Amino acid sequence: MRRTATALAIAAAAVAVLAGCSKNTGSxxxxxxSLPAVPATTQAGPTTEAASAAETNERGRxxxxxxxxxxxxxxxxxxxxxxxxxxDKIDADPKCFQYGTKPKGHTLVLHVRAATGSDQHAADVxxxxxxxxxxxIVTKDGVTKQADMGMCTDPSDDQLPYQFGPNQKFTGKIELxxxxxxxxxxxxxxxxxxxxEWKF
Length: 200
What we know:
The structure is a single chain. The protein has about 200 residues and is mostly beta strands. It is about 10% helix and about 30% strand. The protein has one domain: Immunoglobulin-like (Sandwich). It is built from 2 helices and 11 strands, in the order αβββββαββββββ. The strands form 2 sheets. It has a 6-stranded antiparallel β-sheet, covered by helices on one side. This is Lipoprotein. Keywords: Signal.
């Protein structure tokens, strides 16, 4: 089942009952959950971050390399286990599924790993954040353009779940329909501050 804008709207209503906001961080902290192992067929970058990666760029986002861990820490209990994720690989314009819909622009398939700690709030925020509607691209001209949910590939093929529980690990894909095939992939969310970027 695909992650839809309707699911995000339900999540937005749910977050209203949760106190505080969450934030992303560019550095790993002690006690955070480890991500699932990278599949042998995946060409991924480093799985840990340099301390300097915590610095934000001119758009207020943390710059990431493929395979590098990003963290979400709940402000409700910063001492609890955070939630982490990594985008290991990006497939560009794969062949469409027999019953798929061709993209308006280009298809990007993100191969994602995620892990949650003991804090349910951080796990919820991770689930609400990792959805197609939160992605955009920054073109070579510096123009930000919204990504849409892609419907080209097989929807039963390893999609991420709608919700994330505590102390769990996940692997899956997020499919995007983007207007250009190169630039900067950005992930921002109303549930987190700042955001992240990957060059593709």
